[in-house]
Amino acid sequence: MAFSSLLFLTAFLPVYVALYWASPRWMRNTTLLALSIVFYAWGAPWFLPVVLTLGVVDYYLALAIDARRGRPAAKWIVAFAVVMHLSVLAYFKYSNFFVGELASLFERLGFAGSFHWEKVLLPIGISFLTFEEISYVVDVYRGDAKPSRSVPQYLLFLLLFPHSIAGPIFRWKDLENQLRSRGETLDDVVAGITRFVWGLAKKILIADAAAITADAAFSHTPAEISIGVAWLGALAYSIQIFYDFSGYSDMALGLGRIAGFRFKENFNAPYVSASITEFWTRWHMSLSSWLRDYLYIPLGGNRRGERRTRINVLIVFTLSGVWHGANWTFVLWGLYHGLLNLFERTAIGKRWRESMPRWFAIPFTFALVVIGWVFFRANDVEQAFAFIKAMLGLGSTPPVAKLVPALLAPNRSIFFMALGLLLVAFRARFGRPNEDGKWRWAYVAAAPALLFLSLIQIVNTKFVPLIYFKF
Amino acid sequence: MAADRQLLATAGKLAYVVLLLAMAAIGTVAMVGGPLEDVRLDGAEPAATMPKLDLANVRHETFQKGATAWFDQHWGLRGYAVRTDNTIGVRVFGEVRTDQQPAIGNDGVLFTRDDLTYVNRTDAPDATIALAKQFARVQTKLRARGKVLLPILIPSKTSFHRDSVPASWRRPGAFGRSDENLYRAFVRTLADSGALFVDARALLTAETKRPEDVFQKPARHWRRSSSCRALQAAIDVVRPEIPELGNEQIDCQATLDPATPLISTEFDIHRLLNTWGAKPEGVDVDRYSGRKSSDALRVPTLFVGSSFVWSFVHVSRELETLTPSLCYYYDESVTDTKTLLVTKKVAPFTDDWREDTFGKRLFIVGVLETFLPGDGKKFLDEIEKELDSSSNR
Predict the structure, then answer these.
(1) How far is the alpha carbon of A190 from chain B, nearest alpha carbon, in Å?
(2) Which residues touch B109 (CB under 8 Å, ≥6 apart)?
(3) Tens-digit pLDDT profile for residues B72-81
(4) What is the 8-class DSSP label of residue B216?
């Protein structure tokens, strides 16, 4: 059940607010856990027992680690926990990819159809859940967090519906106290519901409008891509992914705030970054910091010399790409960012960063990010390179366009894409327009109108009538 | 004083939260029996049914998917929401959603996406030429059995309202090129092959003054008067092959009904917009008022094609001409034109099909200028195969 679905918005959300606030304070976590289980079960009922089992296993493993602190056994237990979670992730998320690659290798070697494979269904939120589970046991092992003393509380941490299917990636140590006691008020509900509505509007009004252009552009085959289509499509997708993901994060933060949770921010105006290094401190911050703390630093970070640091950076970015999806395009996206990051660490890169004025560095970085998104969105590697070739002016313009402008760049899409870019500029100039900023009055006052516009659009997208239809 | 202000602020915050939640929930409340009644939406859609709630359905997510689709379709204020969003789209952005059928042209002319896809087509004429040759070939084979096959080239709306196709719907590099080439190639090949055919596009272009005389601005299909005129031309073309037609002609006289209700087919694309606002003005409906045909015109006929052929069915039924007749529709249904009831499905190479098909004297196939929908092509292939196999027997 996506937050932007009609069912969530018009049924689950009101029920959630009503039930949560009608519950006595001591029962609110139970109410939240019940709602979270229903929410998760709606999307992946067959995986729910796995999540619950892994949660219970984690709980006991963490207690075991804590009890053996300082002894080698603790290290073995944490290693077991990490391997277990990574194995579950590998099976559910990557087995189809690896088997597919293996099958095509066999085919090339002349053994076509030599084995049969039932495709594994991808459970929703598994990438986020895995990282949260790993961070929990590792933090307990490191002594950065105390183990949970209650199974339901730990399960609530894992399944808390505002974040369970698409993040942000939480850490137990950040939420432990809030899970125990929050002191939520009416102000939290006002702030939370307003944040949710803004997130919804970002997703429905801007991201979905940009998606029309992005989807149309990326429906072109390599031979059909012109320079205009390539840049328009890449720009549209850059707007789409930012407003979609940051909108989703806003909704998650807002939903949590309604119950008094104060989750960490996941985005901080990434498109006004003056370098790729800065971009990664502003984009999907819960993932970047997770990768830093649980991958980059354990690999040695920058403590083992320049050469090793470079390798570590490449490993982290490549794995970040792999984490996003089981496809070579994601690997290339990760590598692309890794290489750019490495360049910025070189002497030339550093000089470049220091000498560039911000007014130039921001659009330049944005253009680099836009090019990177092509790998992320392309249907395959061939299309990705055809797009980039066209963007660099190295492609050939087809004599006949595949699509008419009305389908490739409808007015609504262009308008909301422009609005999206304006809001990025606004954010850069005036800061976050939320409850703490000076634009608070406009931020709150706009919410009913944004909810109305989003709602009617959600309803309308499900209505595709035909003139005549024989059923 | 401070306490009052505090109370007022709390009341304001509470009202704000209640307002937002009420906005979110009102449609669901209306769905489960609230006092608010929704407005009607035009257009057909497959009905979503609530799946059975059981463990297997939940485990396989069929319940969740089905229930979500049912909820989306039955949401209480759906009509208001859709019409409002569409009105914003049309009035503010001057367009319809890209996944919807209608497209807004210049001067209030509405098109379907199929029309605009047709006008922007860029394919080579090979398939069109082959089709024309197949028509000529099958025509010859049928003639040997005393039957007449007649393709009627039904005009595209874009051929008459070409200037109303907006720039945003013109495919860069393609517009004004291929559809015209294909049309010319099709007509030339039919003529060169000695085939009988009616080029209703050329006929109506020569005889009418305004585009609206053939296609009303908010309509999907050609006017009844135009289709009747095409049938008149068809009678003239086949007269030498069917001498019993004599000199009789269909009486296409029609009266104009200016008080056309919105439910009329002349507004079918407009209705599909599902916006708020008055219906377009200046749209009349042709009502047949001519005399019924005599026995001479009662030639057993088979109509084949899509909804554009449907107007022939109406002529046949209302003026009792070219009867008894059946219509093989695009979804393979067989309609008895006298009752307009779907009696069965087309079942090729069965005795029933042979009787229905070869029991007719005249086969009228509607070609959308150069495009023969799948069913029409299937009909041609099947009938040719049957003729070939029966001649070999």
Answers:
(1) 6
(2) B161, B164, B211, B217
(3) 999 999 999 9
(4) -
- B72 neighbors B18 (Cβ within 8 angstroms): no
B 258-297 → A contacts, CB under 8 A: 268-269, 272, 274
List strand residue ranges (DSSP E) for B64-115, in order.
102-104, 110-112
Q: What is each CA distance from B50 to A5, B68, B72, in whole angstroms?
A: 17, 9, 11
The answer to whether B170 contacts A9, with C-beta atoms less than 8 Å apart, is no
DSSP run (H or E) holding B362: strand B362-368
Which pairs from A422-428 meet CB under 8 Å and 24+ separation? A423/A206, A424/A242, A424/A269, A424/A271, A424/A272, A427/A269, A427/A272, A428/A269, A428/A272, A428/A362
**Cis amide leading into A123 (omega within 30):** no
Q: Could you give the 3-state DSSP secondary structure of residue A342?
A: helix
SS3 B363: strand
Identity of the amino acid at B167: A
How many other C-beta atoms lie within 10 A of the C-beta of residue A307?
A: 8
Which residues, at least 6 apart from B376, have a Cβ–Cβ distance to it below 8 Å? B304, B305, B306, B365, B366, B367
Q: pTM of the full predicted structure?
A: 0.88
- Tokens representing B78? 């759906």
Give the three-state DSSP class for B204: helix
ipTM metric: 0.86
The per-residue pLDDT for A180 is 87
Distance from CA of A428 to the nearest CA of B (A): 28
Instruction: Find tokens 């961070």 and name the residue.
Output: A135
Active site (annotated) includes residue A324 = yes
pLDDT, tens only, A135-149: 999 999 999 999 998
3-state secondary structure A3-50: CCCHHHHHHHHHHHHHHHHHCCHHHHHHHHHHHHHHHHHHHCCCCHHH
DSSP code of residue B45: -
**Cβ within 8 Å, pair A400-B174:** yes
Task: Determine the 3-state secondary structure of A467 from DSSP.
Answer: coil
